[in-house]
Amino acid sequence: MTVYGPPGTSHLVRTALDYIDTPVNIHRLQYPPVPMPVELFSAEEPRVSGDVEPSLIYEDENVSVYATENSHYTTMPAFVHPYGVDRSYSYRFDTADRSVVFSGDTGQSHALAKLAKDADILVIEVIDLERQMEVVREMSGLPDSQLKMVMDHMAKEHISPDQIGLLAAKASVGQLVLTHVVPGLDSEQDITPYVSGVRQHYAGAVQLGSDFDCL
């Protein structure tokens, strides 16, 4: 299996293999010889352009995969890691019978709108900003004056139902699946805030994703 992703993916795969090295070596003595994880997993960090034009990062006889850099790191200070600067990608999978786009973490993004143009399904994160800030205030005990960086991050680097509706309508997306729901608390009984804003601008099917759902 090859894992494709933004800068840091190779580091992630390598350190994950290091993490399981001890149990692998313990259990390999109890079973017939099989390939080791280090032989089975690799990583690639394809070059993705920083403009709105999607980049083709993988293609075979079944699928073409495109990626674009979204806006999840527009306000956070750029920190240079040994592997480079953090990036966040959105992905599009085109097959013979459908196209599916995964937003990943993102704020409003012209690049994502272009990537999702005429897609059958857009799987996209969603944030109820007011609810999330209530959670942050409760957890931190800090006044808003000390939470500006967090508030900017939540408001500009995640995407609200209203913004999702505008994006989906602009891109003529066939169906929306809302996932990575923020705050998405177990205690939440009313999920309408995650959907109602979308409905103001988008007339297509909207589904709030749940574990084991099938489309």
Automatic annotation (TrEMBL):
Q: Name one Pfam family in it.
A: Lactamase_B_2
Q: Where is the Metallo-beta-lactamase domain?
A: 2-180
Coiled-coil stretches, from where to where? none
* Name of the protein in question: Metallo-beta-lactamase domain-containing protein
Source organism per UniProt = Henriciella pelagia
